[in-house]
Write a structure and sequence with these properties.
- By secondary structure, the chain is of the alpha/beta class.
- It has 2 domains: 6-182, 3-Layer(aba) Sandwich (Rossmann fold); 220-316 and 326-431, CoaB-like (Rossmann fold, 3-Layer(aba) Sandwich), CATH 3.40.50.
- 33% of the residues lie in helices and 22% in strands.
- The chain contains 14 helices and 22 strands.
Amino acid sequence: MLKDKRILLIIGGGIAAYKSLELIRLLRKAEASVHAILTSAGQHFVTPLSVSALCEARVFTDLFDLTAEAEMGHIELSRAADLVVVAPATADLMAKLAGGLANDLASTTLLATDKAVLMAPAMNVRMWTHAATQRNLVQLIADGVLFVGPDEGPMACGEYGPGRMAEPADILQAITAALADEAVRPALVATSTTVPVPKPSPLRAESLPALTSDALQGVRVVITSGPTHEPIDPVRYIANRSSGKQGYAIARAAAAAGAEVTLISGPVQLAPPAGVEVVQVESARDMLNAVELALPAQVFIAAAAVADWRTAATAGQKIKKVPGARGPTLALVENPDILASIAKRRKDRPRLVIGFAAETEEVVTHAKTKRVRKGCDWIVANDVTPASGVMGGDLNTVHIIDNSGVESWPKLAKEEVARRLISRIGDYFAAH
């Protein structure tokens, strides 16, 4: 898949820069060619010699290199690649691209490129969750930039949370997905009132247009995300492995498209998306109540992995293990069906109700049945077997099912799945 593909890797300044060396090794093993731009800050963490040895090519570091710039090197670098990858993508690099700044080789190249850009953010958890970074993230997603990660975990600074750069193997997967999708993505072009801009090549039927900042202007969207926790006693609960990443990505994309967004979230370890009203809940009943309070809305997206059952009664105290005794028997009762409840409303039913179907077998078949049973307009179906890596991961492979049939998308970063879904919703409202 990556044989003879040309990757331009921009290495930012952060402790995660050492992972870029492994990424280069994986790309070269996959028979891709790699050229690298190493920022001045990045050179404090990895050396040009190390990067050059692994790339088997010259490393570029200086915008004002007389030899390279005599041939407009920053433009040539940006145009010769099939994909531009920024790993690590620091808060500084994200801010520069979001703001259109170009004062070094890396930022100038990012503005000059007409190819897709994939960023792998890496920074301290407080920097990642800062309102400015989240605002830049929303802008970059709206501009068509792809993202993989960041992951959650311990950091070199001693803190814990989201902000770790995705592992090289995961970035490699995201690169493969981005290149597979590039054939159906239009070139990214700027608009101008004075300078004519070439039109992008015609889109294939299965592709989607670039997301604009007003695609859902004035549209109210309610989204559920994450798992629910159904208490057994004060310290134990029934839950599932949902991370909430897909739902949060959808909320960011919807906000970037101009929508008024309410995100009703189960317990997750994710930063609240910028420009989004977030309502935190615990149980399925809490979530249904919050959804009903958030209505009316034109769009409801049920991306949460709601627990199907809860215990018939919750113990007031911690259930003790008694030596020699049999374990407790838990009587389960069915939780309210949030998706069906909203889809079948007679009053204040959203114009577009979208559910998710997390399946482990016969994904499309089961999802088609679920769409009819629940009464929703669209179902987003995906395979959540452990081998898929979807639960807790950054990639997803989905099938969109509506009354006209099935539309299958390739494996994509969850941020890109969100962008495409919101673009599809924008098309729906434009046509209806």
